[in-house]
Amino acid sequence: MITFKQQIQYMSEQTPILSLNAVSITLGRETLLKEIDLEVNKGDYLYLIGKTGSGKSSLLKSIYGDISISSGSAKFAGFDLRKLKERDLPLLRRKLGIVFQDFRLLEDRNVFENLNVVLKATGWSSASKRTNKIMETLERVQISGKAQRYIHQLSGGEKQRIAIARALLNDPEMIVADEPTGNLDPETSMEVMNVFEALHKKGNTVILATHDYRLIQRFNHPVIRCENQGIHRIDPGNS
User: Fold this and answer.
1) How confident is the model over 121-147, as pLDDT tens digits?
2) pTM for the full model?
3) Burial category of 152 from C-beta neighbours within 10 Å (exposed 0-12, middle 13-18, buried 19 and up)
4) Which of 126, 165, 125 shows the shortest CA–CA distance to 149?
5) What does the alpha-carbon distance between residue 182 and residue 103 come to, in Å, rounded to a whole number?
6) In this predicted model, what pLDDT tens digit does every residue of 194-230 receive, in sequence order?
7) What are the two backbone dihedrals, phi and then psi, of residue 54, each rounded to the nearest 5 degrees?
8) Cβ pair 151, 160 in contact under 8 A
9) Measured between alpha carbons, how far is 48 from 192 in angstroms, rounded to an integer?
């Protein structure tokens, strides 16, 4: 079986945040990714694409500690991802902003409370500072007028903006988004992608897994395909 092995370096600010060298990821007896190399620098924005089961979600999960890396060297923001202990995960995830396809919001709380619970859990003891941070972050995702709305009162696009706001609360080193438009209609998908685009222009580092090639062609950034247990960079026009 062909394994693509290639170091992928992006020329933004040349400050490595994520460095994977000869990394393999297995689940049970199945090898999902084999001996992949990837370097992501501060300020980069890249897409991950690939068929279901190709390893793109597993690659993201390995970065935030949900799947173990079976071999190779993996560093992120000062963490050795191969040597992570359970006690390290909260600290690691403060360095990451994670956005999921299914939002994962607390339906019985309003927008403000959804974000407030995150800040409380990550050590923000001052109520006034939490309030200021929440309102500032909602402004960043262009939804500051919805702070008192309950989650069930929001549209899918609004829910995803809240999920993005939650990911931003602790000023992460990198945003990891796994199919963030998967549950949205085409128009709303474009609106959500505009939010990621604006965040990137402000200096945020983004890795976004998607199956929607229209978005890749509309918002032009480097593309990595997961395929045949490996990864390789492709031309977005030939994705």
Assistant:
1) 988 999 999 999 999 999 999 888 999
2) 0.86
3) exposed
4) 165
5) 10
6) 999 999 999 999 999 998 888 888 988 999 999 999 9
7) -80, -15
8) no
9) 17
